[in-house]
What we know:
By secondary structure, this protein is α/β, with parallel strands linked by helices. Helix content is 33%, strand content 23%. Strands 12-11-8-6-7-14-15-23 form an eight-stranded mixed sheet, sandwiched between helices. A seven-stranded mixed sheet has the order 5-4-17-16-18-19-20, sandwiched between helices. The site of magnesium ion has 3 residues, from loops. The site of magnesium ion (MG) has 3 residues, from loops.
Amino acid sequence: MDSPTASVFSLPELKDVFPGCSSYEELYNFSINETDLFWGTLAKLRLRWNRNFEKVSDCDMETGLFRWFVGGQLNVSVNCVDRHKEKDASRVALIWEKDEPGQEERVTYGELYTMMNQIANVLKSHGVEKGDRVAIYMPACPLAVASMLACARIGAVHSVVFAGFSAEALASRIVDAEAKVVITADQGVRGGKLIELKKTVVAAVANCPSVTAVLVAKRTGNPVVSSSLDVDLDEAMIKESGECEPAVLDSEDLLFMLYTSGSTGNPKGVAHSQAGYLLYASLTHKLVFDCNEGDIFGCVADIGWITGHSYVVYGPLANGVTTLLFESTPTYPDPGRYWETVQRLKVNQLYTAPTAIRLLLKHGNEHVEKYDLTSLRTLGSVGEPINVEAWHWYNKVVGKEKCVVVDTWWQTETGGICISPRPSAPGSEIRPGMPMRPMYGIWPTILGEKGEELEGNNVTGALCLKKPWPGMARTIYGAHGRFLDTYYRPYRGLYFTGDGAIRHSDGYYQITGRMDDVINVSGHRLGTAEVENALGQHPSVAESAVVGYPHDIKGEGIYAYVILKDGYSADAKTESELRATVRQKIAGYALPDVIQTRSGKIMRRILRKVAADQTEDLGDISTLADPSVVEDLIVHHRILV
Ligand code: ATP
Ligand code: MG
């Protein structure tokens, strides 16, 4: 039995705030039974408000309308920067770990305050007003963070687009959001290579009539292609004041949108609002990672993903800690990069993805053992299920069995971590390869094939959440019907995650994977249809089917079956053209690992098995026009992989 001491909670305040609860279980039950009291108390305690809210929540899981902290007003940038600057302007907010090791730059809360306000004033001078959308196409760097906060300062809605997307992918996101301004850099630098950010933006905005200005920050200073919309961001900032009155925003005004891959149709602009998102991101950041004042938090995700939003920017800054901006790759200049960085910067919490862990594991322990990792206390994983081998390696070789390893399950739509081994009583058991326990206020449930809620333990099915929580997405930008169809109509009155899960005999949750046709390549999610559409744009392609297959390092690889039109031959030239088409339409990470060009009927069920090398149990193939083609496919598969 837990003793009701301060150590019961990793957040000591919680015990003072909810004195009736003396154990993790009691507090969790309280958060579920007294939801409004739980979140309302924390919102008052943890956020700075301009006007107090009148009602904690006004939510309806049937109609998909969600409002939190109704009537309250605040500014997110004040909560992330001003509060900490007032206390100690010299505290370090950001450490920019640049591509070359040992070149890091530190930005204090005082400096971040000035940068943010200058950019906010630049945006205003270009006509950006409350509610306008601003696209940010930049890698992790202080100006990118300051740009996100600048939007929050004036009530503009940011849409950060991963700076590896192609011009077409970027343009479709800018058009969907009708962004007024794009913020970018001349070039990016990653793994010793230059990335032509500006060139991509120029190509993209040529097809985006809503864009009236492109703000260009200097990263390399190399000459790059220009356009009539260009504004030199560094020069424009110098001319502006370092003070900008924060806009007073309603809790439910939009803070940002972020596009997820969209397994069917166009990418979805998942939209989050101000207060609920900030409270949820900051509380989960503090509790899951045990991150406190003075800590150096190292989330190596790119800011173009939700993990970068919640755990590089908003969570850590709301909590006033020092957050790492990692520009490089896990293997540059060698596979010791993470560990050298941890040693040099004395990182306390590291948050990365299973694909990176698997990759580093393959390179051998010597790259880890060279470095002093004693600063580390928490090791986090996110993005896909972490296999047990990788979990043990992370725990033993990196954590020396002295760190808390947290496999965190969540989504763009959930705003923050929803299932994770912590918060729970310090020392309580952690099982390899599963996120285990719901966060406060999160009530998971598992649905069976007929849509019935499965009671008890030892059950597998569709993972849904039963109760609204403050960090939940409010809509898909411009497509509320699609929002309802995707998340609230599959199972009435519940939030459908799209993932499958097991509830084990002890009540712990394990995620089995996504229930739709999405491939997870090194943590990048791709709809199979998206890759098929891209391939289909090459003149040689009659038809294609894309499936994922197990890949040692990337988690899943992309296997494309392509049927060529008459007159085209399956040679190396066609194949390289097909790859170029995918790169142009989507991004480099979407390139198929294997392209099999054959003729025959497409039957996904069989193709998936061939790709995964599970050819013993192909099931019924008698309905195929030509069953012998399967033999042919298997033979070719063996040649290819
Ligand atoms: P789309 O919904 O358009 O396909 P996406 O799901 O790729 O986009 P994200 O929100 O970044 O975009 O990814 C969330 C998904 O990642 C989860 O639904 C789940 O499938 C997977 N995931 C994240 N964390 C974990 C984890 N710890 N264990 C297992 N799967 C995880
Ligand atoms: Mg998803």
